[in-house]
Design goal:
12 helices; mainly alpha
Length: 244
């Protein structure tokens, strides 16, 4: 990464961009809170301690893999299966990181690596949309690090707090999924996908992965739907690329 071209923004610019990021993420944050409460409650019902859950959600900022880990949790836990499924669910971060990397080239590693630590689906989508707008407006650099940290740190703190609160009050509430909290996660993703829509052709791998995973979920035991959904989506991408 080129370090010599990076110039730190002034303190007023940094706070302005940080606040812009923190306010931009508010609509997503509202959808994340019930999602975090649900994860915390489910983790408590599976026997995970509050401290263990907080450490997991704080160090592994990826809700999909955390739900997969909690769903697979048992006593004693099958750690190999949990780790492998979590890695597979999080493998999408390889593609997300690769797409974000060109926007980080001007940053020193001491700032780029923490940015990647806080990367999640929501932060990535909002940042890419903002970078696209800034580039179209002729702003250089297109990537605003302070904007990114404003939305990323805010969402991370809310996620950590909501999962912790869910774990604390979950045992007294019972199954809170009956209130529809589990719909918050897909609702947030549908909004993000709408912002990234580039036509039907680009959506075909998503559809293939969705249908394959859904079929596997209802017909195969365990977490087989996770690798099936990922692999079929990748196969669709390869086949579409070969025909292009």
């Amino acid at each position: 990464m080129a370090q010599s071209s990076y110039q730190s923004p002034s303190r007023s610019q940094y706070y302005h961009e940080f606040l812009r990021g923190a306010t931009t993420v508010i609509p997503v944050m509202i959808g994340v809170i019930p999602f975090g409460l649900l994860l915390g409650a489910q983790a408590a019902q599976k026997g995970l301690s509050v401290g263990l859950l907080s450490m997991m959600t704080g160090l592994n900022f990826a809700g999909g893999s955390e739900f997969a880990a909690v769903a697979l949790w048992s006593s004693p836990p099958d750690l190999i299966t949990i780790v492998l499924v979590s890695m597979l669910v999080n493998s999408r971060h390889l593609v997300m990181g690769a797409s974000l990397a060109p926007y980080l080239n001007h940053l020193p590693r001491r700032k780029a690596l923490p940015a990647l630590f806080f990367m999640c689906d929501e932060n990535w989508a909002l940042t890419m949309a903002d970078a696209t707008r800034r580039r179209a407006a002729g702003q250089d650099p297109a990537f605003s690090l302070s904007f990114y940290f404003g939305l990323a740190v805010t969402l991370w703190a809310v996620w950590l707090a909501s999962t912790t609160v869910g774990a604390l009050i979950g045992p007294t509430l019972g199954d809170i999924s009956r209130w529809g909290f589990d719909m918050a996660f897909p609702a947030v993703f549908f909004v993000l996908l709408k912002g990234m829509w580039k036509g039907i052709r680009c959506a075909i791998p998503w559809l293939v992965s969705l249908l394959s995973a859904s079929l596997a979920y209802h017909s195969l035991p365990g977490a087989a739907y996770v690798p099936i959904g990922a692999i079929t989506g990748l196969i669709a991408i390869v086949l579409m690329g070969a025909k292009a």
